[in-house]
Every structure is written in structure tokens, then in C-alpha cells.
């Protein structure tokens, strides 16, 4: 049976001096460091291409930070960027707020903490995993059409949807402690498919050297 790899690439660091949870808000661009991360990921894939392992299909979330992360790889590999709204960031009640203990303790937010396992403050983890996996399977099929057995695709997305997808693929419960997510900026969570079935999940950080000191925002 044919084997295809789909790389779920988290975007690079975002310019966010006010420390807000930007969620699906428009016009949050990569920082200077974020652009360097995106360039390093492109170099990673270009090096793989020299060994005959070039991705043949590139998809990105419609959000600015994902599109900007995809651009250097598109240029390096000569690929068009296909935009897929199914791999967008998770919906979140706290979008646009600077997250702090004082903010979270405001009574107007209390009803959103009723069910942290769903979670009640945003898009259900299961819904995220399902839409992401549907997009990954479609990318798997398109990559196979373009490159045959052993083809690769890249989906540029966001931390929580990627993490939910990984946990689902690994058969793990979807609720979790956000502090324990293994999904750093510009990281790759790779799903290996045989047909439409995920047979392996792996993780790597092509831009690991740039991670120390990088700014992060609490996950959705």
C-alpha cells in the first residue's frame, strides 16, 4: 500500500508586543525571528529535496502568520500555496485579550470554565482534530497524485489544532494541560499514512536553534 507523509508545520513567532491571545484575528504578522524560523524550515525542506525527498504539495491556514510561514518553503521548492480554512486556529472566547490571572477571574468569564474537557471556552478538541484530519487526508491524496508512493505534503497550521490532531492520531484523550504540548514554533508533526490510515507520528524542530528566548502566547 502506498505511503505518504503529511507534515503539520506550526507557524513561526508572531509579532505580538501586547501579549494578546490573537486566535483568528487578522493581520498578526510574523516577527523578525518568526521570518527567520520560516526561512530555516524552508532550508530544511530544501536539504531534504536534495536527497530526493521533496514535498510536492503545500497548504496553509488562511491566517497571515501561516501564509507568511509558508512563503519561503513555497519559493524554495517552487510550489504554490493552497489555502485551506479547515486548518485555521481554534475558536476561543478569550481571543483578543491579554491573558492574566486577573482577567480570568472576572465573573463575566466564569461560565466558559464549566467544562475544561471539551473545552467550554472554545472549539471542541474533537472538532479540531476532525477538520484537521480531513484536510490531512485530502492533502495525502493530492500528494500521492502528484508524487506517487513516498510523496510528502506540508500543512501550515497552529499549535492547538496540530496538537489535537496528534493526540487523536495516537489514540490519546484530547483534553490536556496546555503547558505540556510538544508543538514548538516552526515545528513539524509528521503523520505517515498508508492509504488513509495513519501508521506513524513523529516530531521534529527544524528551527530549534532559534527557540531559546522566543516569545509565546498561551495556547487556545
TrEMBL record:
InterPro entries: His_Pase_superF_clade-1, His_PPase_superfam, PGM_Phosphatase
Listed SMART domains: PGAM
Endpoints of the signal sequence: none
Protein name: Histidine phosphatase family protein
Taxonomic source organism: Arthrobacter cryoconiti
